[in-house]
Amino acid sequence: MTGRGYLAQVRFLIVDDNAFSRQLVRRIIAQFGARDIHEAGDGEQAKNQTISFKPDIIICDWAMKPLDGMQFVHWLREGEDSPAPFTPVIMVTSYSHITNIMQARDAGINEFLAKPISAKSLFMRIQAVIDKPRQYVRADEYFGPDRRRRDMPHRDEKRHDFLEDDDDIVDLGP
Fold first, then answer.
1. Residues 6+ away with beta carbon under 8 Å from 112
2. Taking the complete model, does pTM exceed 0.85, yes or no?
3. What is the structure's pLDDT at 6?
4. Orientation of helix 43-53 relative to helix 69-78, angle to 10°
5. For the segment 2-22, what is each residue's pLDDT rounded down to a tens digit?
């Protein structure tokens, strides 16, 4: 279901210190039918909104003060007073170097989107967290969505047998 009312029942929280960026995201998701949209100008405001508003999806920037997006996500996933550690988070940021993407993934981000954004790219990330949700896992220092996007065999299974069935993966050996 991807019509105009696709997001009508979804509660969004947009977290960004830039008012123009918040407005842009708000307009895009409203075009897809979102009605219940709240905003926060930094991670501290986002904490308060998460507690009082209880969003279904959070769209969050990285660089904000006094509490940035990564600190907010850490609180959301691990904070003792976090009411919603399973809430999907889409990180929308200009910090798009591979090390930043990996850091966001390791913090428990569900989806990552580099600025500048398009309506299509944002919608695809929203659609992914709604239609293809990943299980949440806790392992060592990590809590968040399973970072694997495809079913891969465990270490004790024969990996090369699995790879032979998948045309887009090349087995590079041990």
1. 90, 91, 93, 96, 101, 104, 105, 125
2. no
3. 80
4. 40
5. 556 789 999 999 999 999 999
Residue 91 pairs in a beta bridge with 60, 112
Residue type, 110: N
Determine contact, residues 29/5, Cβ cutoff 8 Å. no
Torsion-angle region of 54 (φ positive above 0: left; ψ -120 to 50: alpha; else: beta): left
Domains of the chain: 11-164 (3.40.50.2300)
Distance from chain centroid for Cα 162 = 29
Buried b (16+ CB within 10 A) or exposed e, 38-54: bbbbbbbbbbebbeebe
Please report which helix (H) or strand (E) contains residue 165, including its range.
none
14 DSSP β-pair partners: 39, 59
∠ at Cα 79 (42, 136), nearest 5°? Answer: 100
Closest listed residue to residue 48, CA positions, set 79, 94, 24, 90: 79
Structure tokens at 131: 């239609």
- Residue 147 has a pLDDT of 72
DSSP 3-state of 105: helix
9: left (phi over 0), alpha (psi -120 to 50) or beta: alpha
Distance from C-alpha of 103 to C-alpha of 20, rounded to nearest angstrom: 26
Residues 137-145 have a mean pLDDT of: 87
At a CB cut-off of 8 Å and minimum separation 6, what does 174 contact? none
